[in-house]
Automatic annotation (TrEMBL):
Residues 20-47 have a biased composition (Low complexity). It comes from the Eukaryota. NCBIfam families: 16S rRNA (cytosine(1402)-N(4))-methyltransferase RsmH. Keywords: Methyltransferase, S-adenosyl-L-methionine, Transferase. Belongs to the methyltransferase superfamily. RsmH family. One of its GO terms (biological process) is rRNA base methylation. Residues 1-78 are annotated as: Disordered. Signal peptide: none annotated. One of its GO terms (molecular function) is rRNA (cytosine-N4-)-methyltransferase activity. Residues 1-14 have a biased composition (Basic residues). It comes from Hondaea fermentalgiana. This is Ribosomal RNA small subunit methyltransferase H.
Length: 375
């Protein structure tokens, strides 16, 4: 049973995860056309670096001059988000695509653009002329990434869409591509902004929509969703053992007063939680479950995984970072069933101790990558 089949019986009706997902007609945030993000017929660029420390190399634009503003990698902290497993992701694509004349990669979860920036830096030292399309459904993230990556010119384009719809949004002019990267889940900059309603730690209106134009928010689910649907969401998406008790308590609390904010929700479920024995914040699973349901995250992932053979050309690479078992299980199972793909490495890559210490949110990240055999 598909993970979101449980929601198709709920009212009000939904298209995916209770949220309508729009590709915005494939609009590109800098006003360029879809056709302009296709393959370049120009000769490959040659980098001036030696493949060493990216932050220290002088980067060349391949035409004998310095590319302004891109001589060093930014930390990403100014955007409130540090890309996880950045070096591991770059290594995967450099190893599989770096020696080609040219390549086109789609970053389906662009965020603040940290992975894209790192990839463009590394490929400046390689023979491959790399172009990247960044897809995200969060307009705020697109704007941050567009500004950050502006110095790279036509090597980068940003598109407002859901990664599950990239084949339709980008069309035959772009598809199939040489590589796809997904960094699943919610970003640090979304968690840290209280008004987005993603985090139980920050006071804000219950929202949790990655695309603010989507019609259904966490507030709608919490205040209008049937009790049995809430219970199933908490059990399936949060793996919460007390799903029924918590759903019952939410319905009881909302009869007295609307649950308007993140802290209202935490207070509503507090009586049902054993705070003394909890290993992590008791609200974490509930917030995760609601976020997945609101944004149709597993549905989007399943749709993408079903389309991988139609998206990635022979010799191409797919790399996916997941943060919880529901995502990772889907990725692992899908990667195993593809007949003409092979793993780029055994098992998963995880954050180093140094990265986990510097960025605790990287501790649960798992990277899986596969490459399609040349036919």
């Amino acid at each position: 049973m598909r993970r979101l089949a449980i929601l198709r019986r709920a009212k009000p009706p939904r298209t995916r995860g209770f949220a309508s997902i729009s590709s915005k007609n494939g609009s590109i945030s800098d006003g360029s056309s879809i056709g302009s993000i296709g393959r370049s017929s120009s000769s490959s660029s040659s980098g001036s670096g030696s493949g060493g420390d990216l932050a220290q190399d002088d980067e060349s634009d391949g035409r004998g001059g310095q590319r302004p503003g891109v001589n060093t990698l930014s930390s990403g902290k100014e955007a409130g988000h540090v890309s996880v497993l950045r070096d591991e992701v770059v290594d995967v694509f450099a190893d599989t695509l770096g020696m080609r004349n040219e390549a086109l990669i789609v970053d389906g979860t662009l965020g603040a653009g940290g992975h894209v920036e790192a990839l463009l830096h590394r490929f400046e030292t390689l023979p491959c002329n790399l172009r990247i399309v960044g897809v995200d459904r969060d307009p705020d993230a697109l704007e941050i990434a567009r500004r950050r990556l502006a110095p790279w010119g036509d090597k980068f384009r940003a598109v407002h869409s859901n990664f599950s719809e990239m084949k339709t949004t980008l069309g035959d002019e772009v598809m199939p591509v040489d590589g796809v990267l997904l960094d699943l889940g919610v970003s640090s900059m979304q968690l840290d902004r209280g008004e987005r309603g993603f985090s139980f730690r920050n006071e804000g209106k219950l929202d949790m929509r990655m695309d603010p134009t989507s019609p259904v928010s966490a507030w709608t689910l919490v205040n209008k969703g049937p009790q049995n649907v809430l219970e199933t969401i908490f059990r399936e998406y949060g793996e919460e053992r007390n799903a029924r008790r918590i759903a019952t308590q939410i319905v009881r609390a909302r009869r007295k007063q609307a649950i308007d904010s993140t802290h209202d929700l935490v207070r509503a479920i507090a009586p049902m939680v054993d705070w003394k024995t909890a290993r992590s914040h008791p609200a974490a699973r509930i917030f995760q479950a609601l976020r997945i349901a609101v944004n149709g995250e597993l549905d989007s992932l399943e749709t993408f995984l079903d389309n991988v053979p139609n998206i990635v050309r022979p010799g191409g690479t797919v790399a996916i970072i997941s943060f919880h078992s529901l995502e990772d299980r889907l990725v692992k199972q899908a990667f195993k069933k593809y007949k003409d793909f092979t793993p780029c490495f055994r098992g998963v890559r995880k954050a180093s101790k140094e990265e986990s210490t510097e960025n605790p949110r990287a501790r649960s990240a798992k990277l899986r990558a596969i490459a399609r055999r040349l036919q």
